[in-house]
Amino acid sequence: PFLAQLMPVSISEERAKGYFLQLTSALAYLHENGVSKFPLKYSGISKKSMSLHVAHNDIKPSNIMLSSTNTPIFVDFGFAQKWDVNAVHTGASTLIGGLTTLTGHSASCHELFQSEISWGTPEYLDPQRAKGLRHDERASDVWALGVGFRDLPNL
After folding, report:
1. pLDDT (tens digit, 9 = 90+) per residue, 12-44?
2. SS3 breakdown of the chain: % helix, strand, coil, rounded to 5?
3. Mutual orientation of helices 137-150 and 13-32 as an angle, nearest 10°?
């Protein structure tokens, strides 16, 4: 019941850069391509017709885990928002497999990611979100990732 190797309490700057690049790539994928849910395969709706774009909304070091292959992975999507970008153009609200998308009126993709909600961990909120001002949740995710990695090599 003990670890065979000591757990590092800090990581090298080089390793931190590699993790940062992997996570920025993953974040861009979530924002631009979104996710697909396994039940969609059986819902009679093609993957192409359902494109759920995601903003995490609570990125911080404690919401990043390392896989068994040492790949960083975002976890805890409790504050995440999902949008069916295709429904934007039709103005239709969508309910699929218990997941309601946040559309229901015709809007541009840019408008969908706008919010005035100040949720998340205070230390990682971007200035607009912290003040309750209108902000793009995708930009807030990027801000939080940068703040979280700022001191990582020095921990």
Report:
1. 888 889 999 999 999 998 888 776 654 444 444
2. 40, 15, 45
3. 170
